[in-house]
Specification:
Layout: E1 2-3, E2 8-13, E3 30-33, E4 50-51, H1 53-58, E5 63-65, E6 69-72, E7 80-82, E8 91-94, E9 98-103, H2 110-117, H3 120-127, H4 141-146, E10 149-150, H5 155-195, E11 205-208, E12 211-214, E13 218-221, H6 222-225, E14 226-228, E15 239-243, E16 259-262, E17 267-269, E18 274-277, E19 288-290, E20 300-302, E21 306-311, H7 317-324, H8 327-335, H9 348-352, E22 355-358, H10 361-401
Parallel strand pairs: 3-8, 15-20
Antiparallel strand pairs: 1-10, 2-9, 3-4, 5-8, 6-7, 6-9, 11-12, 13-22, 14-21, 15-16, 17-20, 18-19, 18-21
């Protein structure tokens, strides 16, 4: 048994808030890591905040490099990830809510260490110095992190264990990339055909109240093609699938993380529904999901902060999802939010009044097969990822404890 500090080469917290104010952020530049990038084992590159190179270098103690570990200090405490060798950027500035750590890689295989801290035992050691009142935060995070007791196997064993778990994660990442690429393509095709009308010659377009539209199309509103927040039966006290908005992805159509929970109220949904977050900041982040993971005839439920939409006869549900993913629709929904600052919402009635060009049934039928295939691929890859992540999470503590020998 040793102290984690025995293996640490360098450790530093993120900058003080006064040194990294909102006005420092720019659209592109030196990337900043925050809690949104620490959702899994590896730091993700869905970066939304940047500063200038000059500003980042002035905060050089808070710059993390590849193979460094990043830990959340306050907020979602327990988050811990590492920057992989194939990361998009070579360096990152950690935010005020994180600290970074560099380890002696002759003794520590960083991916192994991260896997360890994702076990119940590892999480317990990090959370043991979190405060129990107010906003969750780690007390004296750098000192207490150094003082964590840990027993590391030989570096060769660390690599073997991590390689088993990484193989599962690599497949999960591959499936995720396939889904994201396919969704980008499907969204681009939808925009070309149903928003920009690129397949149509100018002579085939006519003036309308929303601009040029193809001949034979009609002008309507979203409620013409979709039922908004449909009424469904789900008895209180009944155990059903529950979807928490925090598990709803900002990209990718399927909300695959769920739990069984007793129904006490909320929005009800079924397969082929499109769910849209109606509250800030989830709405601005584009949280829209297509449901296709439920058992036959199952009714699930979630927060009232969803708007639930199901397509009416004649408009396929897959197209409804891609319509709600369109930037113009998101802009309309965001512009029409109301309520108190920080908790603004858009109403189902407002969403239903969104003006659209409605194509003839023949146009919809011409793309139905393609979009159904796309959604089937999403579903199959997503379900495989769920099975792989469950297998990884089952193997993880058993490999770490030595119950399974490598």
């Amino acid at each position: 048994m040793a102290k984690l500090g025995d293996f640490i080469l360098d450790i530093a917290a993120g900058p003080f808030g006064s040194n990294l104010k909102v006005e420092c952020f720019i659209p592109q530049g030196f990337p900043i890591i925050d809690g949104a990038n620490l959702k899994g084992f590896k730091v993700t590159d869905n970066i939304t905040k940047f500063v200038t190179e000059e500003k980042a270098r002035s905060l050089h103690r808070s710059i993390a490099k590849r193979n460094d570990v990043v830990v959340t200090i306050s907020g979602n405490v327990g988050q811990i990830s590492y920057i992989p060798e194939d990361s998009k950027y070579r360096e990152y500035l950690v935010s005020q809510r994180q600290f970074r750590v560099s380890f002696n890689t002759n003794k520590v295989y960083v991916p192994y260490l991260i896997y360890y801290f994702h076990t119940n035992e590892g999480q317990h050691k990090i959370l043991s110095f979190a405060n129990q009142t107010g906003v969750p935060a780690l007390a004296q995070p750098l000192k207490n992190f150094r003082n964590i007791d840990i027993e590391l196997p030989d570096i060769k064993i660390q690599r073997k264990i991590a390689s088993i778990l990484s193989a599962l994660d690599d497949k999960i990442e591959c499936n995720t990339r396939i889904n994201l690429t396919l969704e980008e393509q499907a969204q681009a095709i939808f925009k070309s055909r149903f928003i920009d009308f690129e397949p149509y010659f100018k002579g085939d377009l006519i003036e309308s109240e929303i601009g040029l539209i193809p001949k034979g199309w009609t002008i309507g509103v979203l409620s013409d093609i979709a039922n908004i927040n449909p009424t469904r039966v789900l008895k209180k006290g009944h155990n059903s699938t529950y979807l928490d908005m925090k598990n709803m992805p900002t990209s990718g159509p399927f909300p695959f993380k769920w739990e069984m929970k007793e129904y006490s109220g909320g929005m009800k949904f079924q397969n082929q529904d499109t769910l849209m977050a109606r509250i800030t900041p989830c709405l601005e982040n584009g949280k829209v999901a297509y449901v296709n993971f439920l058992q036959d005839n199952e009714v699930a439920f979630g927060s009232t902060e969803y708007i639930v939409m199901t397509s009416k006869d004649g408009y396929i549900p897959e197209l409804l999802y891609f319509l709600c993913r369109d930037e113009a629709f998101k802009g309309y929904a965001t512009k029409n939010m109301n309520g108190s600052s920080g908790r603004q919402r858009v109403s189902g009635e407002t969403i239903g009044n969104y003006k659209i060009a409605i194509p003839p049934r023949s146009v919809i039928e011409s793309v139905a097969g393609y979009y159904k295939t796309v959604m089937d691929v999403f579903k199959n890859n997503g379900l495989e990822n769920l099975a792989l992540s469950n297998l990884r999470d089952t193997l993880l503590p058993r490999l770490m404890s030595g119950e399974i020998k490598v």
